[in-house]
Hints:
The structure holds 2 protein chains of 2 kinds. By secondary structure, chain A is an alpha+beta fold. Chain A has 3 domains: 2-66 and 85-113; 121-233, Sandwich (Immunoglobulin-like); 238-331, Cytochrome Bc1 Complex, Chain D, domain 2. Chain A contains 8 helices and 12 strands. Chain A has helices at 2-24, 34-67, 85-113, 220-233, 238-248, 251-254, 287-295, 319-331, and strands at residues 121-128, 131-136, 141-143, 146-149, 154-160, 165-168, 175-178, 184-188, 194-199, 212-218, 274-276, 282-284. Chain A has a 5-stranded mixed sheet with strand order 3-2-1-5-8. The longest helix of chain B is centred in the first third of the chain and has 35 residues, at 135-169. Chain B has helices at 2-5, 8-33, 41-60, 64-70, 96-124, 135-169, 177-196, 213-216, 220-248, 261-293, 306-340, 347-360, 379-388, 390-404, 413-430, 433-436, 438-444, 448-478, 484-511, 527-557, and strands at 588-590, 605-607. Chain B is mostly helical. Chain B has a two-stranded antiparallel sheet with strand order 1-2. Chain B has 20 helices and 2 strands. In chain B, helix 6 (135-169) crosses helix 18 and helix 11 crosses helix 18. The two termini of chain B are 46 Å apart. In chain B, 65% of the residues lie in helices and 1% in strands.
Amino acid sequence: MKHVVIIVILVIACTFLIHTGLTNIGLLPAEASTQSVEIDRLFGVHIWLVSALFSLIMVVMLYSLIVFRRRKGETGDGAYITGNTTLEVLWTAIPLLAVIILAYIGGKSLGIIRRIDPSAMQVKVISGQWFWRYQYPDYGVTTTDLYLPVGRQIKLEMTSNDVLHSFWVPEFRVKQDLVPGRTTELRITPTLIGDYKVRCAELCGASHAYMEGLVRVVSQGDFDKWISEQQSAAPMDPVLRGQQLAQQLGCSNCHSVDGSKKTGPTWLHLYQSEVELSDGSSVEADDNYLKTSIVNSNLQVVAGYSANVMPNFADLLDQTEVESLVVYIKTLK
Amino acid sequence: MRKFISLGLVRGLIWQIVGTALGIGILTGIRLLIGLPAWKPESAFVFGALLGAMFFLYGVGVLDDWIKLASGKEISEHIDESRLGWRRYFGASLDHKVIGIQYLTLALILMSVGGTFALIFRSELADTGMQFLTLMEYNTLMSLHGMVMIVGILIGIAAFMNYLVPMLIGARDMAFPRLNAFAFWLAVPAGIILLSSMALGGFDTGWTGYPPLSARAPIGMQMFFLGVSLAGFSTILGSLNIIVTAIRLRAPRMTPFRMPIFIWASIATSIISLTATQLIGLSFQMVMFQRLFGMGFFDPGKGGNPILFQHLFWFYSHPAVYVFVLPGLGLISEMLPVFARKPLFGYKWVAISSIAIALIGFLVWGHHMFASGMAEYLRVPFMYSTLLVAVPTGVKFFSWLGTLWRGKITYETPMLFLLAGIVVFLFGGLTGPPNATVSTDLHLTDTYFIVGHFHDTMFGGYVFPFFAGIYYWFPKMTGRRLNEKLGKLQFWLMAPAFIVLSLEMMKVGMLGMRRRIADYDPALQFVSENQIMTVAAFLIALGVLIFFINVFWSIRKGEVATGNVWNSRSPEWQVASPMPMHNYEKPFEVVGEPYDYGLPGSVYVKFKESE
């Protein structure tokens, strides 16, 4: 009985000590979204659980190791105890109940962070090796940095150009993979004005570590100002517009304009040249060929390059944007 | 020189080189005949590697008996090879103890290689920016560290199961000795092919090999897929053998609840290996076919689905984690009563909990995919099933506490490693539930928190019990003890360093360090944490180095120990070490409970005086 009293006191003391320690060493980044507040509350539950269970098992174990050690000169064996069914049932039933409650709390928590606001602002996210691009369909703006107004739910509709990526801003907590060929969704409600970084969290090849981008949470006023700047910055001249799109969409990552060979064929002197295709035929690179190649690149694959490398831009670009790109490519003749 | 070439291993390697060259030649020849461009490196190397593995098996001699049988010739019973001395370890042997030690040696070699990879890229991470590796080299080493360690662990488990299962149940050998030898020798070319990926451009996908990335990685990727598929085949055959042996070859009156507890763990592990390994082989082969034959299983451009791969992959790879830890937890339960001098608390509950963990383990794979984009409603049932694993795992912890309570605990080296195993596995266990509840996992997944959590489960559930087992059964294998002083030095280097390492990993993970990154943002200010981790990693390596020194010294000069070193009740310690061929000269029958320490006058087994 004496053993039990000492152990109970030690377990309680250790639980509070460890809990205080864990909550004070700063284990989580700043809370910058409503989702992060809810997730941190659940982390709080976990920290209590970890402190209590760790204390329970470690105290009993260390106590046994010290008190029940074999002393000098002692021979013989320990007490003959083969088990205790009441104890076994208890330490099966209590944890079972505990995990069911925890799972219930977990389900609730998931419901809260996935709560849908119908007036959420839509942002399309396009990722690829190794860049982030954002489109604001409500405003007709495409950018490389993500600007978000504070206090409003954002619905990110995300897809990938090539391999799996994952959208993660640690200060927002939530994470979602971007999958080629489909759209995944992530909802974030930023609450704290500031600069953050989106960091790709799914291994995506050699430069995975560097696939980071700026995420700036600003006031509604600053956001409106930034949007109108972006809108006016979009050049009216189709050539400049095409050049800008080639940068923003990541075309220039694979297609050079100086004749060098990258993942895709160069654009230099492309227009009206004779292109050899992988099926052995050849075709003249006229307007029609260029347009088809942008929206359905697998139809006519250039000899020496593989199919299925370039994403299908049919869904991402409107007619004028495609034409701007074609006009730009023409100037590289 | 003649003697050297007559070693099975050397012959196997020569045949493997011949087979690989032949495979490359045949494939190129066929392409030439049907008018394709002759040289397609990817197909040539894959076919060459496959043929090389088959030739290796022929060369090493594990197919000889089957070839004789197929051609109607007589084959001999397996014979005493002890006259061969150390040479028997380098060729095809049918003795389960020899095969067990072969597995053990291969596991130690592979894990040392995998650990060296970790040291290299851990040094790279000691500071921000790239120090001495390229991004691709980093990714290759990091990816290979994962898979080489996993294959090493699987082989280490096979080592213990092979060495111990027949011995603990009083069998003369495994149920299928030839299949046993075949399974071991298949693992050797599998390991060689896996490591050859470094020479063929490496790969940058991590051990998970997710497409579409793995569908466009260099040719090294194919060697990774092929090596793992062959190692998986070896595991399936090995586990089949263990299950049959444990069911069919037990000593008289060894009823299920009187088996040594390690047998329960071995059966639970083998059930998973036998039934789930196919899925990782399948998923990897589907990517191989996608690359070789242009099939579109996981290619969205052809209507394929990249997430399907993750389901197939994790359907094996989550249960696989229990394959790694169940034998280790079994070793803890097996040895703890010996050092506590007390019966194993709640034997039946511990036994059933192994089976329960194995079965629940099949229902939880989706928790690796909470952020993957799989159907959203699936996240909740997977959360419930995942948390359920805590219940049988808890039973094990409480039973160990019950075993220690009121014992007469002694602290030899194996016991120290057992305790480290329990503590570190506790870290791993307690950091599990935050990954199970979906919303917290959305923060933790793909960060260093997962890396820390996983390494805790591996060191607690495998590495430390594995070392405990080696220190404990080394006298049985060699007739000599490992040096206690060096053993304790190894322990005090490894255990604290590892705990610091894993806690730092989890801390930086929670604060925002992603896993599998070759470099990290200086703005995050993780440099000092990473330096601590790098130093800790080298201390662990130093511990392992001391272990190897201990083994080489003790094999020749260690204290002679042929008797019951640990005063154990287990049958293998009732006879002199090392064990003769076919184990017990006199068969035994079970007359008591396996762990009745403290019950005066009781014994577990009684040897029959005459046949």
